[in-house]
Amino acid sequence: MDEDLETRVARLFPSLYLTLVSVLVGLVLSDLFSEVHSRMTLWPLTLETARTWCQVLGNTLAVLAAWVTYSHLGLLKRRLPTVWDTLDAVLVLITIPSNAQVGRHDAAGYFLVAASWNLLAVCAVRINLWQAALEPGLAHLKRIGRFSGPYNYLYVGVPVLAAMSVLSYLHLTTPLVELVATASAPLAGVFVTIFFVREWRAAIRQAPTEAEATAGLSPLSESPR
């Protein structure tokens, strides 16, 4: 029997969503590497060029971490799309202003844009989890966005990076301190991805089957007697 239009759209939506996100991620990385080739100095290795390396790696891994979040949650979106899905995907482009500040002599601009990136990334994660939790039996996915969860760096990074921007602008920091602060970004990209995938897998395993979700049962609940 032929499937109805709503079912067909819901079935095709994850592929469309992942294609859009992948294209936008590719655009962001292309912009970053274009900036690297056109104006950045990566050698000889000094504290400033080491900071540039950390900024490049940080932006690259942050975008890849975002793609992992989008792709893994996008796989669960078997429903009709909403305008929030489009807004959430477009938020990947917030990395482009950050790319423009990579490799600058003055680090204050980079820290300010990085703080803004973290804030908007929190919004993107919240929207993504909220939309994914619309699926039957996946309401518990919202727990991934808790303060002490995989995205803790985003919450902490907003005030910390904003403070670093002010201190750098007022010349109250040293190149070594700025390097250490910048080096936290690529490490965060790696650990956020690892912790997210771990919790995502656990959440998927805890999700009830379609029949259980329809009946309002949990796989952990007791069988009716």
Summarize the SSE layout with pairings.
Elements: H1 5-39, H2 47-74, H3 83-90, H4 95-101, H5 108-132, H6 152-169, H7 175-206, H8 210-215
Helix pairs in contact: 1-2, 1-3, 1-4, 2-5, 2-7, 3-5, 4-5, 5-6, 6-7
Properties at a glance:
0% strand, disordered C terminus, 225 residues, mainly alpha
Written description of the protein model:
- With 225 residues, the protein is mainly α.
- It has one domain.
- 71% of the residues lie in helices and 0% in strands.
- The protein has 8 helices and no strands.
- The protein has helices at 5-39, 47-74, 83-90, 95-101, 108-132, 152-169, 175-206, 210-215.
- Helix 1 packs antiparallel against helix 2 (47-74).
Tell me briefly what this model is.
With about 220 residues, the chain is mainly α.
